[in-house]
Amino acid sequence: MARDLRLFYLFRLLATSYLWVPIFVPFMFSRGLTFRDIMILGGVYSAVVIIVEVPTGAFADRIGRRTSMMLGSLMMAGSCLIAYQAGSFSEFLVAECLAAVSMSLCSGADSAYLFDLLAENGVAHEYGHRESTASAWHQAGSAVAFAGGGLLAEIDLALPYLVTAGVAMCAFGVASTLGDDRSRLAAPAPMRMSLVLEWRSWASHMKSAMGDVMRNGRLAWIIGYSAVVFVLLRATIYLYQPYLNARSFSYSEIGFIFAAVYLTASFVAHRGHVLRKRFGDEPLLWALLAGLAISFVLLEEMGGPFVLALLAVQAVANGLYSPLVKPLLNKEITDSSRRATVLSVESIFRRGAMGLFAPIAGFYGASSAMTLCGILGLVGLVVLATFAIRRADTFRGAPTID
User: Fold this and answer.
1) What distance in Å separates the CA atoms of residue 109 and residue 204, rounded to the nearest whole number?
2) pLDDT at position 19
3) DSSP code of residue 179
4) Is 108 helix (H, G, I), strand (E, B) or coil?
5) 85 contact partners, CB below 8 Å, separation of at least 6
6) Is 351 exposed, middle or buried, given 0-12, 13-18 or 19+ CB atoms closer than 10 A?
7) pTM (2 d.p.)
8) What are the tens digits of pLDDT across the range 22-66?
9) Other beta carbons within 10 Å of 393
10) How far is it, in rounded angstroms, from Cα 62 to Cα 181?
């Protein structure tokens, strides 16, 4: 198990080390796209994820999580190579679609691989701690990648895409050396089943996963919470660049700011299990969302060193998000044979929320999007609190059985 854990952490580091993140907005500007075009691409990305998320989750459950992670890495390499030479909206559209499929193949599959690896070795209770460590590796890899991407952009704005393709191929190589997980699956897929029967089997699997969510009020609430927080965190990728550009930061400086944000997130992610044990999950859930919402409102009004302080607040939220939410999700999933599929359902909801938000933000423009994020966070906070109170009242009013 120790070997597979080390390789898994390395995969998490490499698989999302996207050097293009700090510069993709000015890069697309340089290729003739507008901010509205870029946000529409963000909406398309989310729409593709929604279409393929559950099928790819079922694929991971039935064919193997390692196989899914390998294919996801290859898709990302292809996406970066297309974007590297893209000169039109349609070419960037193809690159975004490939990136969305890549993310879907890895999302859920990697967490399910880790959980079942630990469960097979009798240490499933360590998942929260191990997920925190894996998230720290992911955040640290992103920090190094963002700093490198900013420096490469000073030479050529397209270079970060080319290097990311190489990093994705390294992630593929690491995933291929992980232990084969197909023997852990409760019901391996028959390899010679007809396509019609196979689709029916997958459809039934997806339906069962959706049923798991609908029957579990706590699971549904966590998925709603995850959707709101994800939109706010994802929006920073699009908004930081024009926001910092407007304040005369260079590409390399923006890259280092992104790196600092993600290094802070890495530290918080690594200590995520400690924070959960010390403060409890519920206080952290509310503090994370409230901190995000308020920081977005203040960013539009503040300047100077206050900006960096508010970015630090968002970095803490970014680092805490995965180590806090993923264990809560996995705790509520009772059937491990559908674990990756249920996690994919969660991804559909949060990506769907982003798919709705991105075009709206593009319509209002980068200058108003920060305030829009703050409003979304505050409204989400009120709605989630209302449902939490109602659910608590329902349980208090339920009859007891002696």
Assistant:
1) 19
2) 95
3) P
4) coil
5) 91, 158
6) buried
7) 0.76
8) 999 999 999 999 999 999 999 999 899 888 876 787 778 777 888
9) 10
10) 10
